[in-house]
Amino acid sequence: MVQNRTLQVREDDEKNTCIYSGLFIDRHSGGSSCRNRRTEQQSNHTFTQPFQDEAIFSNYLNISIQNQTYADLGIVLPEKLTTDYFKALTNVLNLLGNYTQSNTGDITFYRNEPNKNELVSHNLIVLGTPKDNSLIKKLNEHLYFQYSDDFDTFISNEKLSIESDYGKSIGTAQLLFSPYNRDAVSLVLTGVDSEAVYLASTQLKSQANASIYQGDAVVVDANYRRYDYRFKKEASADEDESVLSRIISQKDAVIYGIVFVLAVVIVVLVLYFVIKRYYPTPTAKEKGGEQNDQ
């Protein structure tokens, strides 16, 4: 039986690191990538999680934990870790840590935006605002709850009408199929400010919290009103069609439509010539002769 463990977060200014009960982040500029100190294995960049059918919050632990170890996680942090961010990160790590048998697996922390190869190689957890985490700006077009063009508030979508002031006060947790690797997922905790990010994280601090959400997006406001939404029609990556596949499908539909119209035109023309040949229209002279006979 797996024993629950709490991952404590604290700063060590003398060593210029951030300690997470066996995990550490190097805070020196330029040192953006840090790994679990007890982990020696390297990522093989493949994902065989049994989560493919259910990429939703109630199943999130099956995504991020494999065989009671961390499933190749990449955590992209904001430029500066404020108190709210430390609390938010603690909530997420507590959720993960309580269901791992040992401090093993692969977790990489990034203080700067990872490169493309790094983004491909992880299940991602992205924490912050568009102003202090550049990856969130790039992910905006993929988010279910997106920011305005100025990145100063959330905008309305098909699920929720959002006034500008309200959009500035909410935090969101959004579970996406990764835009960088269709076999991986990205958990994005974001809001206009760090307090909103912390609000979103409160819904993921334990399995009891996360398991109540049957969707892939959670909204929390300053009054702790919580809203659960499901945007994926099917939570399977295989059935979450890409833009390219939809375009191809539309082109196929147009081609089939043109072929159908041409076929109808050909049939009409053939019938016209058959009728004209075998059932000719009487001429005026023939019509006159018929009248004289009468």
From TrEMBL:
Which terms are listed as keywords in the entry? Cell membrane, Membrane, Transmembrane, Transmembrane helix
The UniProt transmembrane annotation reads 253-275
* Biological processes annotated in GO: UDP-alpha-D-glucose metabolic process
Any one GO CC term of this protein is: plasma membrane
Is this entry keyworded Hydrolase?
Answer: no
User: Per its record, how is this protein called by name?
Assistant: Uncharacterized protein
Q: Where in the cell is it found?
A: Cell membrane
Q: What is its main location?
A: membrane
Q: Which domain of life is it from?
A: Bacteria
Q: What is the lineage of its organism?
A: Bacteria, Bacillati, Bacillota, Bacilli, Lactobacillales
Claim: Ribonucleoprotein is one of the keywords in the record: no
